Every structure is written in C-alpha cells, then in structure tokens.
C-alpha cells in the first residue's frame, strides 16, 4: 500500500542506531538520518536513501537543535561540517511531505475513505486505523465524527496536523475535512513517519477536545 522505503519487517523497524546527541543506541524508527553533502553541509535524509555515512538524531525538534548547537555532526563525522540553524524546520517540512505523499499513495490503493458519511461508515466497520481531520474543519462536524470514533469497535488514532487545503492536494480533492485511513501493513509503516513528525508538531491542535483513552 504505502511504500516509501520504510522498514519492511518489525526487526528492520526495530534496528538500533547510535543517536549522536545521546551517545546511545536507539530504535531506528525513532530517529532521523543525516548525511554530509559534498560541500560539507548537513542534509536530512528522512527516506534513508542518500549515499554516505549516516548520522542519526532523535526525531524531535529539541534533539536536532541540540545536535546543531553542540556541533555533534562534526564530532560524529570527525570532519568540519556546517549544520544550518533551520535544520529542524527542514526535517519537519520533509517529514510532513512524506506523510502527505503517503496519504496520496493510500488513496490510489483504495485505503483512504473521505467524506462525512463515508467516514462514519468506515468507523462503524472497525477497520479504520487513523481518523484524519482537517485542522481547520468546523468544530460541529469534528465533534460528531469524534463521537463515532469513540463508539467504533476499534477506536482509531486521530490526526489533525494538516489543513483542508493540504489534505486536498495530497488526496486530489477539494474541501477535504474528514478522512479515514484503513488498517493494513502499509498503514503501519506510514504510522512510523507520523510518529516521527509528532516530534515537531502535535498530533492534533491544542484546542481540540479529543477524549481518547490513548494519546491521539
């Protein structure tokens, strides 16, 4: 379904890498890979495809800011490297694009349901892994969908990181407010990217009332 060079097995997803800030081994799924460009500039490699020796940092804004401030990239590479001050912002943009691109792939594979009534039906079926709500959607509709999510046989996780326009561009539609992502192996891999992105922006806007037992 959603194939973006993500880990193909649980063992691969759980492979440990040394976090250059902590100096400890951490699951690769929780890290962002960086490489040194030919000009000595540190480049984020969120897809883990770029050539060169990887340098790994926890997928959150504070850890990447610390890596820049402490010159951790140069120490790790044993060479003088330049880490831009906006490196964490670069990672956030790249991860957000990756997550949205993954939704586009899911739509083409038939794993995305959009529209108020269709999403309610998907929730009732118990097959929804993620309920994706536009950050700028109306509160009344969102409250009704959240109520249905709480009553679902398998309560989905909730995502509200993107606006209606952003979701529309990813899904090839207009006024995209309510979306359900169905469960599946590809969805599990996509979830790893969402969790990395959550180190840079919250799962849902702070003023939303989600009322789920699990964190959204």
Key features of this structure:
216 residues, alpha+beta, Hypothetical Cytosolic Protein, Chain: A, 60s Ribosomal Protein L30, Chain: A, 2 domains, four-stranded mixed β-sheet, three-stranded antiparallel β-sheet, 40% helix, elongated, disordered N terminus, Ribosomal_eL30-like_sf, RNA-binding protein, YlxR-like_sf, YlxR
Question: What does it look like?
Answer:
This is RNA-binding protein. It comes from Caulobacter sp. 602-2. InterPro entries: Ribosomal_eL30-like_sf, YlxR, YlxR-like_sf, YlxR_dom. The protein is α+β, with helices and mostly antiparallel strands. The protein is built from 8 helices and 9 strands. The strands form 3 sheets. It has a 4-stranded mixed beta sheet. Strand 7, helix 6 (139-151) and strand 8 (157-159) form a beta-alpha-beta unit. Helix 2 runs antiparallel to helix 4 (87-109) and helix 4 packs across helix 7. The longest helix has 23 residues, at 87-109. The two termini are 23 Å apart.
Largest sheet: 4 strands, mixed
Subunit arrangement of the protein: single chain
Proportion of helical residues? 25-40%
Across the major sheet, the strand order is 6-9-7-8
Classified by CATH, the class of the largest domain is: Alpha Beta
Cα end-to-end separation: 23 Å
Strand tally:
9
Proportion in β-strands: 15-25%
Number of domains: 2
Principal-axis shape equals: elongated
């Amino acid at each position: 379904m959603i194939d973006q060079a993500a880990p193909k097995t649980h063992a691969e997803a759980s492979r440990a890498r040394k976090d250059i800030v902590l100096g400890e081994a951490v699951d690769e799924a929780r890290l962002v890979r960086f490489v040194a460009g030919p000009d000595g500039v540190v480049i984020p490699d969120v897809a883990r495809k770029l050539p060169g020796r990887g340098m790994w940092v926890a997928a959150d804004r504070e850890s990447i800011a610390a890596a820049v401030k402490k010159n951790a990239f140069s120490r790790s590479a044993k060479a003088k490297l330049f880490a831009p001050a906006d490196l964490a912002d670069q990672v956030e943009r790249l991860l957000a694009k990756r997550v949205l691109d993954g939704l586009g792939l899911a739509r083409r594979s038939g794993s995305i349901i959009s529209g108020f009534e269709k999403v309610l039906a998907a929730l009732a079926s118990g097959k929804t892994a993620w309920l994706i709500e536009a950050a700028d959607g109306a509160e009344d509709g969102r409250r009704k969908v959240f109520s249905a999510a709480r009553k679902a046989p398998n309560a989905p996780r909730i995502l509200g990181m993107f606006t209606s326009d952003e979701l529309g561009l990813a899904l090839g539609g207009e006024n995209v407010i309510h979306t359900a992502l169905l469960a599946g192996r590809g969805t599990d891999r996509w979830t790893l990217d969402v969790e990395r992105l959550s180190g840079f922006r919250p799962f849902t806007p702070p003023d939303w009332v989600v009322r789920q037992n699990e964190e959204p």
